[in-house]
Design brief:
By secondary structure, the chain is of the alpha+beta class. The chain has two domains: 279 residues, FAD/NAD(P)-binding domain; 154 residues, Elongation Factor Tu (Ef-tu), domain 3. The chain is 32% helix and 16% strand. The protein has 13 helices and 17 strands. The strands form four sheets. It has a six-stranded mixed β-sheet, with helices on one face. Strands 10-11-12-13-9-14 form a six-stranded antiparallel β-sheet. The two termini are 24 Å apart.
């Protein structure tokens, strides 16, 4: 049946936001035979962090975190695969080498999701800004960069929301890297052993770099208290992190452990790692170097990194507003609003942190909006699953000071027979999750 005929016959579910959560939600609704109106304000209006006109743009990094199912991030992704996630299908198809992580060619990934969504006859993509919350069953998946007018509408309905600032790392051209100084290697030889380019520092080089980093001029941010930045720890700008102490970044994103500089035969004093930004290997992301430095300052300071003296920046790092609601006070574990059950929220606006965490919330919001549409009971996955634990975390009223949460083993219920070995324990968490999720899927007919 043609799209127009279907949409005329049935009431559509509204999904506001064409990012990871919104696209996953739209897919889950449409695969259940329900029409979707997917609203996306691009290309007519973009946030400062967005560049592409496509749906599902990766803004901050092209890494989707650990790939191993025995890790928290890997467990989450495998659960999504079990639930027929569109984004996991596209991510697996667009993978680029990244050691033990799942990283994607961000343009191919966005294009794959964009093509799948726009080709679906049950999904109508409407390119316009939504300034007020629509009537009917609706999912708000506008992410951390919700437009000002819609943010005001949400605040008018919900009261004060919480906000923090997020930062993205620069991207440089491979051909501009001096490989006489830098070298290919993964920590401890993981992955293919050459998934990262490493820029090694001597102590003197590090000290000189550090001194310039902490005094470099930062870009202004609107409505932002620069003297007391409220920045989420997972995307801390490198210059803010450095101000905590001379060795903070050397034990953080610049840690040299597991690496040997082939030119010296020794471990460097510090190291900056670069990760492939696309499958062709023409572009590289400076790992862990989210920043709010002014562009000329990024050029000046980051060119002090050994091997990057003549680096050509394709995109400089930026810092942007990030907003999330007080979910434990406002949301049920199915991602619906407690006082308006036909309104769902999904993505980082709910306080889940990370690309795949956002997508997983969109997946569950999409499933639950579909169940509500069919007058059926909405679902919360078993607590033993990573997705189920995140559902419970964002709706846990006992949380006093709510902060964003990514996938981690600490939010899972304890094992009955807890292995002492950390790796064995993680493997048991994964086995339990997949076993119980498979039973849940079979029982609920998902």
């Amino acid at each position: 049946m043609k799209r127009d005929a279907v949409l005329q016959r049935m009431t559509a579910i509204n999904v506001v936001g064409g990012g990871l959560a919104g696209c996953e939600a739209a897919y889950q609704i449409a695969k259940r035979g329900i029409p979707v109106k997917l609203y996306e304000m691009k290309p007519h209006k973009k946030s400062p962090a967005h560049h592409s006109d496509m749906l599902c743009e990766l803004v901050c990094s092209n890494s989707l975190k650990a790939a191993r199912p025995e890790s928290a991030a890997g467990m989450l992704k495998q659960e999504m695969r079990m639930l027929d996630s569109l984004l996991m299908k596209c991510a697996d198809a667009c993978r680029v080498p990244a050691g033990g992580a799942l990283a994607v060619d961000r343009e191919l990934f966005s294009q794959a999701v964009h093509d799948a969504i726009t080709a679906d006859p049950l999904i109508e993509v409407i390119n316009q800004e939504v300034t007020a919350i629509p009537e009917g069953i609706t999912i708000i998946a506008t992410g951390p960069l919700t437009s000002e007018m819609l943010s005001s509408s949400i605040q008018n309905m919900l009261g004060d929301s919480l906000s923090f600032y997020d930062a993205a790392a620069p991207i440089i051209k491979f051909e501009s890297i001096n490989m006489d100084k830098a070298f290919f290697a993964s920590r401890y030889g993981k992955g293919d052993g050459d998934d990262y380019i490493n820029c090694p520092f001597t102590k003197d080089e590090y000290d000189a770099f550090y001194d310039e980093l902490i005094k470099a001029e930062r870009a202004p941010v609107h409505d932002f208290d620069v003297m007391n930045p409220k920045v989420y720890e997972g995307c801390m700008p490198i210059e803010v992190m450095a101000q905590r102490g001379r060795d903070t970044v050397r034990f953080g994103p610049m840690k040299p452990v597991g690496l040997t500089d082939p030119s010296t035969g020794h471990r460097p004093w510090a190291v900056v790692q670069l990760r492939k930004e696309n499958s062709s290997g023409l572009l590289y992301n400076i790992v862990g170097f989210q920043t709010n430095l002014k562009f000329p300052e990024q050029q000046r300071v980051f060119s002090m990194i050994p091997g990057l003296e003549k680096a050509e920046f394709v995109r400089y790092g930026v810092m942007h507003r990030n907003t999330f609601i007080d979910s434990p006070r406002l949301l049920c574990s199915d991602f619906s609003l407690k006082n308006r059950r036909n309104l769902f929220f999904a993505g980082q606006i709910t306080g889940v942190e990370g690309y795949m965490e956002s997508a997983s919330s969109g997946l569950m919001a999409g499933i639950n909006a579909s169940l509500l549409y069919a007058s059926q009971q909405t679902l919360t996955l078993p607590q033993s699953t990573m997705i189920g634990s995140l559902q419970r975390y964002i709706s846990d009223e006992s949380v006093v000071k709510f902060q964003p949460m990514g996938a981690n083993l600490g939010i899972l219920p304890e094992l009955l027979d807890r292995p002492r070995d950390k790796k064995e324990r993680a493997a048991e968490y994964a086995k339990r999750s997949f076993r119980e999720l498979e039973e849940f899927i079979s029982k609920k007919g998902l």
